[in-house]
Write a structure and sequence with these properties.
Blueprint (H helix, E strand, L loop, with lengths): L1 H5 L16 H7 L3 H9 L9 H7 L4 H9 L7 H15 L3 H14 L3
Helix pairs in contact: 4-6, 6-7
Length: 112
């Protein structure tokens, strides 16, 4: 793990050098809860100021979304989150219960 975070591209275990996302976004997209937990314990910061909204828009699994909320991941604006939820319902098949939960999270924690 330390090698991965050191920037030594030839020894990374996930392909951040060929993806525009940062390592926590990649781990979240893959549903890799163990890596996400380790990265947070090591103090790795969120890749983006709206990482939760990006995770919803990208169709990340619900357990990852719930973990991101529990860890205090920033969501950005309420309007962006609402758009991401609408997209996830439309093309990812997100259920009504998950959509309502995320809208509640946005209303409670959103920045505008």
């Amino acid at each position: 793990m330390r090698r991965c975070l050191s920037g030594c591209h030839s020894k990374q275990t996930w392909p951040t050098s060929v993806r525009p996302e940062g390592p926590s976004h990649y781990a979240a997209r893959c549903g890799d809860m163990a890596t996400l937990s380790i990265m947070r314990r090591m103090g790795l910061q969120w890749d983006y100021p709206d990482i939760l909204t990006r995770a919803v828009r990208s169709g990340h699994p619900t357990p990852v979304l719930r973990w991101l909320v529990e860890e205090g991941a920033p969501l950005g604006s309420v309007q962006s989150m609402e758009g991401a939820v609408a997209s996830a319902v439309g093309w990812c098949g997100m259920g009504a219960e998950d959509a309502a939960w995320l809208r509640g999270v946005a209303a409670e924690h959103g920045s505008g």
